[in-house]
Amino acid sequence: MSNPIQKHPLIIRKVYRYRGEVQGVGFRANAIHQARGLTITGFIRNEPNGDVTMDVQGSPHDVQELAERVGQTMSAKINETLVEQRESISDRDRFRITTS
């Protein structure tokens, strides 16, 4: 299966760490829903300390759009969002929920 984001000339990767009441509230499923229509890859997972990590890559527009959608739809549950830019990974083929 080919990587769906290879057709974009510029691919970025960002890792978002959400803190607050973000586990057990449909946060990960919401992120998957919000990603529909965007060309992104990566994962979202619960962390043992109660945070949620979303590691996502795609075009700058799609990565930003997903972060905004998640932030808006889950704003009542998020107390803090930490963001880190990282090098992209070429072997990803979709956006999915994983375990920590």
From TrEMBL:
One Pfam family from the record: Acylphosphatase
Major enzyme class: hydrolase
Molecular function per GO: acylphosphatase activity
Keyword Hydrolase: yes
Active site: R28, N46
Catalytic activity: an acyl phosphate + H2O = a carboxylate + phosphate + H(+)
Entry's EC annotation: 3.6.1.7
Keyword Hydrolase: yes
Domain Acylphosphatase-like: 13-99
PROSITE patterns according to UniProt: ACYLPHOSPHATASE_3 (PS51160)
Keywords for the protein's UniProt record, in alphabetical order: Hydrolase
Family, per entry: Belongs to the acylphosphatase family.
Full protein name: acylphosphatase
Organism listed in the record: Neorhodopirellula pilleata
